[in-house]
User: Which sequence fits this backbone?
C-alpha cells in the first residue's frame, strides 16, 4: 500500500532505505525520547527495517520531492501493541528526522494513516502514547484530536533499560468522523 499526502509519500520500507534510516535514527535527539537507542550503523538500520519496520501497516515517511525516507509511521495491529488486544483497535506510532521537526509533516502523515485505519481497516479506536517530556509527540496527538486516557508512572522501556512515565491517548472513529464533518 502506498499513501500520498500533499508533501509526502508513505510506502513500505525497503532494504535500500537503510542509509537514510541510519542518517536520521543515529541522532540522539530522535530515538531515545521515543524509547529506542540511536542506531550505530547502517547494518543495524537494515536489521530494524527487516525485523521492526516490517509490519503490514508500517510505512517509510518520504518527501515527495526526492522519495527519501525521513521518518516512520505505523499502525500497530493486534499482537503488536500492548495498548489493546482487540481486532478493531490499533496503536499509532511514529518518529521523524530532526531536520523536519516543526513543519507539520507528522500530523499530515498521521491524518493519512488515520483515514486508512478508520475507512479501510475498519478500526473503531486508534491508541497513541508518548513518554513524559516528549512534548512534540504530545502536540502531534493533540492536533489530531486524540483525547487523554491515562498516565502510567513506571512503564518499562526495554530498549533503553529504564522506566518512564507514559501517557496514553485515544481517538475513536466517531470522534474522527465528526472532525471530518467539521473540516468540510
Assistant:
Amino acid at each position: 500500500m502506498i499513501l500520498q499526502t500533499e508533501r509526502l509519500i508513505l510506502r513500505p520500507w525497503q532494504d535500500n532505505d537503510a542509509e537514510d534510516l541510519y542518517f536520521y535514527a543515529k541522532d540522539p535527539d530522535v530515538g531515545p525520547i521515543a524509547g529506542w537507542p540511536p542506531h550505530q550503523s547502517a547494518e543495524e538500520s537494515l536489521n530494524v527495517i527487516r525485523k521492526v519496520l516490517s509490519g503490514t501497516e508500517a510505512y517509510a515517511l518520504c518527501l515527495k520531492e526526492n522519495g527519501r525516507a525521513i521518518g516512520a509511521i505505523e499502525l500497530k495491529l493486534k499482537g503488536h501493541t500492548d495498548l489493546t488486544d482487540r481486532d478493531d483497535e490499533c496503536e499509532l506510532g511514529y518518529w521523524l528526522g530532526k531536520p523536519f521537526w516543526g513543519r507539520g509533516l507528522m500530523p499530515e502523515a498521521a491524518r493519512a494513516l488515520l483515514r486508512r485505519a478508520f475507512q479501510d481497516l475498519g478500526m473503531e479506536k486508534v491508541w497513541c502514547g508518548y513518554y513524559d517530556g516528549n512534548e512534540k509527540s504530545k502536540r502531534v496527538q493533540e492536533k489530531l484530536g486524540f483525547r487523554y486516557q491515562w498516565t502510567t508512572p513506571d512503564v518499562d522501556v526495554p530498549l533503553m533499560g529504564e522506566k518512564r512515565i507514559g501517557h496514553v491517548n485515544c481517538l475513536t472513529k466517531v470522534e474522527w468522523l465528526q472532525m471530518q464533518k467539521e473540516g468540510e
Notes: The CA atoms of residues 155 and 163 lie 5 Å apart. The chain is about 30% helix and 30% strand.
